[in-house]
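Glucuronosyltransferase
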Amino acid sequence: MLLRPAFEGFDVHYATTLEGFAERERLEKVHVLPDANRHRPLRTIACAWTCWNVIRSIRPHYIVTTGALPGLTCGLIGRLFGARTIWVDSIANSERLSMSGQFAGHFAALSVTQWEHLAQDGSPAFHGALL
């Protein structure tokens, strides 16, 4: 939500794994995805199916995600529909890029890290931290 002000004036849809997120943040266009990780393959399939349906119906031009497997899944599926992905690796990963962040670097139009010492030539880039 720290990026929210950057998108004022645009038609923004949010995807989250958190029930009640829309009410808490007072948002209208919110899609709830099943939470998934590499240790729960069936949940990953459910998440991918939901991502596919959301992206197919919205047809976004850009997907901005701050990480984890659901965001990675949205980025990959979005690419199939022509969307460009901007990957912001989680601030929680201060020692190394997340596994999802490492993978996203291969397909994202822009991949950034919030830790200067994790920036590499090309991807991910460092442009400052959110906190």
